[in-house]
Amino acid sequence: MRTSNPVLTRTGTPQPDRSLDELLRGDPVSARPPSGAPPVAIGTDRLTVDSVIVTTLGLLGLVVVAGAVGWNLVSDSNATAGRAPAWMMGVFVLVIGLAIAAAAVPRHARIIAPAYAIVVGVLAGVVSRIYEVRFDGIVLQAIGLTIGVFLTMLILFLNRTIRCTPRLRVAIASATFAVFAIYVLSFLVRLFGADIPYIHDAGPIGILFSLAVVTIAAFNLILDFDAVERSVAAGAPSSLRWNLALGLVATLVWLYLELLRLLGKIRR
What we know:
Shape: globular
Strand content: under 5%
Radius of gyration: 19 Å
Number of strands: 0
Largest sheet: none
């Protein structure tokens, strides 16, 4: 399983004999391990697509509840002025820390995943409130687009319109790292009162940059789907569902926030 999502474990899971759509339609427990994969003892607690779906939905529920809390923590004056609360910096650092912890200590994902969902939910709620005050209805638009992009990428993956080849994995991972590096550099530059020109503006370059980032986030979903498919087909343990669900949630929240930024630039 290889993915650029930092909260997923990078392991060399062999190519599955059965695709995700077959695993969804059939009994995942009866799926044969791919050739070369270590044998899995009958009766062990194995990963299923259903368990990943249920866990992902549970984490998304936490994101929504925490998002509502974050939304209500923003004062009217700050929201109108477009200012985030001072404590948001700590929330952002905590989100990054939990993502790193999930990648570094994957066996503790059962604990880290809910904590991450709560913290990133508060972050998304604060950002959403600020955007909604400035651009009425933008949050519902971003949510609708996020769901639409998710379903589109899932269909393209299931139909094998987009195949998760090694070259594609490298390309998406490299692009994701480049975006992360740009955001980190932008954050450091802002600490000294400056900013990277154009990428945060509402001009053509800023909009094109946001479109590129949204595309990269969308393609990260392909890597997440591939990780689920490979893990289930390889007979991975059920506990891995927390890592896979966390990866999906992280990608979906990132995609939502980038769509929010893109819509905000377009509507300025």
